């Protein structure tokens, strides 16, 4: 059962249940004290949040999932500047997830009214 949950995150063929070891690295936007590029790039799955300005050159470039905070003005800035769009982290992202804060969803993404009487 445990192996079933890991299948989306990497290859599981030929691996016996209970003997599989997978690595997940979560990279935030804070500073790093040393270069972790080789450890991050050799992980089975790398999840990144936003743009890691503080760790560029020290956090590798592998990106399986890039989560971007779309409810901030920062997203507008990223899309204006080609440096973000051309960055290795953005280009290597296998998947993008645009995250919204629940308060933003409630305020700006109203549910449609399907009732004919309004």
From TrEMBL:
The organism's taxonomic lineage, starting at the top: Bacteria, Pseudomonadati, Pseudomonadota, Alphaproteobacteria, Hyphomicrobiales
Taxonomy, superkingdom: Bacteria
Protein name: Urease operon accessory protein
UniProt cross-references to Gene3D superfamilies, sorted A to Z: Glycosyl transferase family 29
